[in-house]
Amino acid sequence: MAEGTPESTANATHVDEDAKLRTENVDDSGYKDEDLPVALKKLLQRLEGTPELGLDAATYVPILSQAKYGDFFTNVASSSSKMQIRKQVRLRVLKAIGSCNTLQVLRVPDGCTYSELEAVLLPLQSNSELTKIVIRRLESSNDADVESCWLLLGQLLQTSHTLDRLIIEDCRLTPTGMSHLASGLRGNSQSAVQLLNLDLGHDASLTLHMAEIVSVAPKLRHLTLRGLEVPDESILGILSQAFRQNTRLETLFLYVGGCRGENRMKEILLNIFTGEDSNQSISNLTLAGKATCTFDCFAEIASLNRSLKIIYLHVDYVASTNQGGRIGQSLCSNSTLDALYIFGAWYEWRENIQARVLELITAADVKRPIIHLHIGSSKEGEDDSIKGDDLEWRFLVQALRNNFPSLASILLDYADLNAQASLRQPGGQGFLDALGNNSTLQSLGIRFGTRDFFQGGWKQLFKSLRVNTSLTRLGL
After folding, report:
1. Per-residue pLDDT tens digits for 261-279
2. How far apart are CA 188 and CA 124, in angstroms?
């Protein structure tokens, strides 16, 4: 029965009811296929390749924690017998995922164990279609299971000519495991890996292996690192040299929130981006994460580096340097930087940070629009309910009224928030008035999860847009 037919549509309407059958009609000895949720049965048929059913071959793994797939990939408490059945079904699904030769994108279900991941990786070695692997939030395990998984992944990296994106986050990496990954990349001159995202978990013993990966990955262009720690000067030198000598990297994303070796972090950035032998290939740099480090080297980087075209800077760095004005001045001497994005969740744009950002914009006495402000939703579990007076209208009004020629865009992204703010409130009206009188801002984006935000403000918004002489792009 093909998907999209009236019969399959009727089955879809009974997903929740069907999912209740997940373990209720089985005995302690095992499970029966007919007792599985319809969506899970269809997925297995696609993964295991049942051409007579007329189903499309599977190319990606859906989110298996969805209700229509039952509770096999959730943390729902069950009796010991049902837990055993759940384990059997999970293992069958994971083996089917690994054995599916048409699979192109593998997202390992959250909460899998390392032994379960091994069940996926073992048969995956023969896949010639795979282009992306995402592994997140694996359950903790012993060293043997952990290193066995990374050995298999390293072997896959050594043989695959199609895998171009690898993301590993919130998982346990060991020095031996990192060595397996580096060995796999080093041993494959035809490796297609262009994007690598690794969470090092603030484990300094992994840094040397990270330097090797930077050196040996033949096509690596986009690198994201979280939890990087540099234990001593010798490893600092090795890591810095690996980045300086790399001529392929184009994008570097450093999530350095919570770093302990702040002075070495500054040295790494200076070693990579300044000096006669500095890296000349990285054009896009992001410094993210809540800053506990003092990055007063940023102004020096902006003044001296000529390869960086786009920089994303978390608002905490502007405040922690205590040198907003100096950073702004450094932009005056840099004619090659195309854009500086200053970003952060709404609750992070505190009053002292707003003052630093205004200092930066004021000091950036350039005639080209290169500064972009992005005030976004919370992604880290903060309170997502804000009131109208919580929005920093005064800061935005001041930025608009000064007609800074360097300010290119403002994005207010509250799409994920339960906001009580609206444009009809005094702060919102002041913002719209300032927008109408502004003659430099080129782009404005406003995203809200509630329609109430625009109620009572449409007329004034359109009026402001009619008289504004600079906006070329508006996103609502």
Report:
1. 555 778 889 999 999 899 9
2. 17
Does pLDDT of 100 surpass 60? Answer: yes
Is residue 62 a contact partner of residue 3, using CB atoms and an 8 Å limit? Answer: no
Cα–Cα distance between 120 and 149 in angstroms, integer? 10
Answer yes or no: are the C-beta atoms of 256 and 290 closer than 8 Å: no
Please write the tens of the pLDDT for every residue from 169-217: 999 999 999 999 999 999 999 999 999 999 999 899 999 999 999 999 9
Report the DSSP beta bridge partners of residue 312: 286, 341
Neighbouring CB atoms inside 10 A of 351's CB total 10
pTM of the model: 0.85
